[in-house]
Amino acid sequence: LHDTGNSLRDPATNAPVVISDYENICAIFPQDVRKILDEVSPSAYPLSLDKLASYGTFKLIPYKTVNTPFALMLAYLPDEISVDGHIIENALIAISSSPVSDGGAYTAII
To answer: Are 75 and 61 in contact (CB under 8 A)?
Structure first.
């Protein structure tokens, strides 16, 4: 889903942030990373940042929603993201603690 209201960016680099839930993106991670993330609940992913440091660029992205005035999402910086044949470089993928789609119609918010 290309959400024109998705203005989430990394505050340090201003890179855009794509949001997906773990089940939809877990395959991009090595087994060691999946093991670390499988050991905690999704809401505790930000607490795993120190354990993930040797597996690539992981960072915390602050965000807010209507019901949440402040929270952090764990995000990963892949080499690139491909969406419908279009390459997005220098974008992060944030791991939502809940599904991004109620009915499964989409797997990420761009």
So the answer is: yes
Residue 10 to residues 71, 78, 90, Cα–Cα distance (Å): 14, 14, 10
Residue 9 contacts residue 84 (beta carbons within 8 Å): no
Could you tell me how many helices (H) and strands (E) the chain has, helices first?
3, 7
Given a contact cutoff of 8 angstroms between Cβ atoms, the answer to whether 42 and 22 are in contact is yes
Write down the pLDDT at residue 7: 87
Here the tokens at position 68 are 């949440």
The whole-angstrom distance between residue 73's C-alpha and the CA centroid of its chain comes to 7
Quote the percentage of the chain above a pLDDT of 70. Answer: 95
| Interval 37-61: pLDDT, tens | 999 888 888 889 999 999 999 999 9
DSSP line for 20-40 = EEHHHHGGGS-HHHHHHHHTS
Tokens of 62: 């602050």
DSSP secondary structure code for residue 13 in this structure = T
